[in-house]
Design goal:
single chain, Growth Hormone, Chain: A, 14 helices, 4% strand, cell membrane
Length: 445
C-alpha cells in the first residue's frame, strides 16, 4: 500500500476504482434493460451487446497503447470518462435494442482506450520496478473488489430505485474519475519513433512467442466460457426460470464475484508454495468439472428453492476457480517482459483475452436462447475442455534458459558473458522476447 503515498498515482488509482464501480453497475443494469426489451430472449440480446463490447476491446486496446505517447494523456483520459458518462445517461431513454447496441459501442470504444492508456501512464509515475509491481497488484485487487461489491451495491440501490437509477450511479462514477484525473500533472515522456503498426503489434508478438503466455490463450478461454455463462444467462435463469426479481439477479452476480474475491485473497499463500502452472491448470480443470456437475444438477433438480440454492453454490465455486485461473496472469506478464514493454504486453493480454470473451459471449447468448441452462452449461464446458488442453500442452517451464545467438555482432553488449562456439554465441539468462531474442528456444527447459 506504500505506493499510494505518491499523490499522482493515488489519484489515478482512485479514478480507476470509481470508474470500475460505474462499469459494474452498468453490467447489472444492462442485463435488466435487455430483459425489459426482449423478455426471455434477453440472453441473446445481452450476449450480442457484450460481444460488441469485446470487438471494441480487441480492436482499440493495442492501438490506444501505441498512440498513448503521441497524445496528451490527461486530456485523453478525461475526455474518455466524459464520453462514457454521456452514453450511460442516454441509456435509460432508449426503447430499441439497436439503440442500446450503438450506445454501448461508443461507450466501449472509450473504455477500451481508457484502460491501456491508464496502464501506460503508471510506469512513468512509479519508475521503480518494485513500486510498479505493487501498483499492478492493487489494480488486480480493484477488479476483484468491483466484481464483489458492484452487484451488492446494485442490489442495495434496486431496493430504493428502478434499474434506470443504476445508470445514474454509473455516470457519477465516470464524472468522479474525470474530476480526479483533471487535477493531475502527468510526467512528460519521450515519443516512440517506431512506426505505429510496429508499436501496435509489439505486445501481441511478444505474447504469442512466449510459451507460458501463449498457454494463457487456452486457460483464458476456459475462464471466459464459465464467466460468459454467468454474465449472459444469470438474468434469464433467475428471472425467467426461477421467477425471482431484479435484486436476485444482482445477488447471483455478487455471489460469483464473492467466490472470485475469496480465491484472490487465498492465492498469495498458495502461490508461495505451488508454481503458477500447477495452480492455474488445476483451476482450469476445476472449472470444467464444476460446469459439467452444474449441468447435471440443473437437469436433475426441479424444485425452485433447490435450483436457486444450486445456482448460488455453483456460481460461488465457479468464481473461485475463475479467479484462480486469471489472477496470476499478471505475475507471468511481469516475468515475461522488461519494464518498458509491460504496457504493450498488458494491452495484448487485454485484447486477446477479450477476443475470447467475444466468442464465449456470443456462444452463451445463442445457446441460452435455444437450449436449457443445463445444456448451455454443458456446451460451454466442452469449450473449456479445449482451452485447458491447449493451455497444458503449450506451457513450458523455465525462466533462465541456455540459448545461442548466431545473428548478433561480436561487440553487441548483450554478448558480454557469452562464450563462442561453432554454432554462435552461447549463454544463459532470464529469457524474454525482445530485440535480441525474436523466438523462444526450441529445446524444452
Amino acid at each position: 500500500m506504500s505506493v499510494l503515498a505518491d499523490r499522482t498515482y493515488r489519484r489515478l488509482f482512485a479514478a480507476q476504482v470509481v470508474a470500475l464501480f460505474g462499469t459494474g453497475l452498468t453490467t447489472v443494469a444492462l442485463g435488466l434493460l435487455a430483459y425489459d426489451l426482449a423478455g426471455v430472449g434477453a440472453g441473446a440480446v445481452l450476449g450480442g451487446i457484450l460481444a460488441v463490447k469485446m470487438v471494441a476491446n480487441v480492436v482499440i486496446a493495442p492501438v490506444a497503447t501505441a498512440l498513448a505517447d503521441r497524445l496528451p494523456r490527461r486530456t485523453l483520459l478525461v475526455g474518455l470518462d466524459l464520453v462514457r458518462c454521456a452514453v450511460v445517461l442516454a441509456l435509460p431513454w432508449v426503447d430499441q435494442v439497436w439503440q442500446v447496441v450503438v450506445l454501448v459501442t461508443v461507450s466501449q470504444v472509450a473504455a477500451a482506450a481508457f484502460t491501456p492508456t491508464l496502464q501506460a501512464v503508471i510506469p512513468l509515475i512509479l519508475t521503480a520496478e518494485r513500486d510498479y509491481t505493487r501498483a499492478l497488484t492493487l489494480s488486480r485487487l480493484a477488479y476483484d473488489l468491483e466484481g464483489v461489491l458492484s452487484p451488492v451495491l446494485a442490489a442495495a440501490l434496486l431496493t430504493v430505485v428502478s434499474f434506470s437509477g443504476l445508470f445514474v450511479g454509473t455516470a457519477l462514477g465516470f464524472l468522479a474519475s474525470a474530476a480526479l484525473v483533471v487535477t493531475l500533472t502527468l510526467p512528460a515522456h519521450a515519443h516512440e519513433r517506431a512506426p505505429l503498426l510496429e508499436r501496435t503489434l509489439a505486445g501481441t508478438r511478444v505474447y504469442l512467442r512466449t510459451p507460458r503466455l501463449r498457454a494463457q490463450l487456452g486457460l483464458n478461454l476456459a475462464a471466459a466460457a464459465a464467466g460468459a455463462m454467468v454474465l449472459v444467462n444469470t438474468v434469464v435463469v433467475v428471472r425467467g426460470g426461477l421467477g425471482h426479481g431484479n435484486a436476485s439477479v444482482a445477488i447471483a452476480l455478487g455471489v460469483f464475484g464473492a467466490g472470485s474475491m475469496v480465491a484472490a485473497l487465498l492465492l498469495p499463500r498458495v502461490l508461495d508454495r505451488r508454481p503458477d502452472r500447477q495452480v492455474m491448470t488445476c483451476a482450469g480443470v476445476a472449472l470444467v468439472v464444476l460446469m459439467l456437475v452444474g449441468a447435471g444438477l440443473f437437469h436433475l433438480v426441479s424444485d425452485p428453492t433447490g435450483r436457486w440454492v444450486t445456482l448460488l453454490g455453483l456460481w460461488v465455486a465457479l468464481g473461485v476457480a475463475y479467479s484462480a485461473v486469471l489472477t496470476p496472469v499478471g505475475r507471468l506478464i511481469r516475468a515475461s517482459a522488461a519494464p518498458g514493454d509491460l504496457p504493450a504486453l498488458f494491452a495484448a493480454q487485454y485484447a486477446l483475452s477479450h477476443a475470447e470473451w467475444l466468442v464465449t459471449y456470443l456462444l452463451a447468448g445463442l445457446l441460452g436462447s435455444v437450449f436449457s441452462p443445463a445444456a448451455t452449461l454443458a456446451c460451454l464446458a466442452v469449450v473449456a475442455v479445449g482451452g485447458v488442453v491447449f493451455g497444458v500442452r503449450a506451457w513450458r517451464e523455465g525462466v533462465e534458459l541456455e540459448h545461442v545467438h548466431a545473428d548478433l555482432p561480436e561487440d553487441d553488449p548483450h554478448l558480454v558473458d557469452a562464450t563462442h562456439g561453432t554454432d554462435g554465441w552461447r549463454h544463459s539468462h532470464r529469457y524474454l522476447i525482445d530485440r535480441a531474442h525474436r523466438r523462444w528456444p526450441t529445446a524444452r527447459a
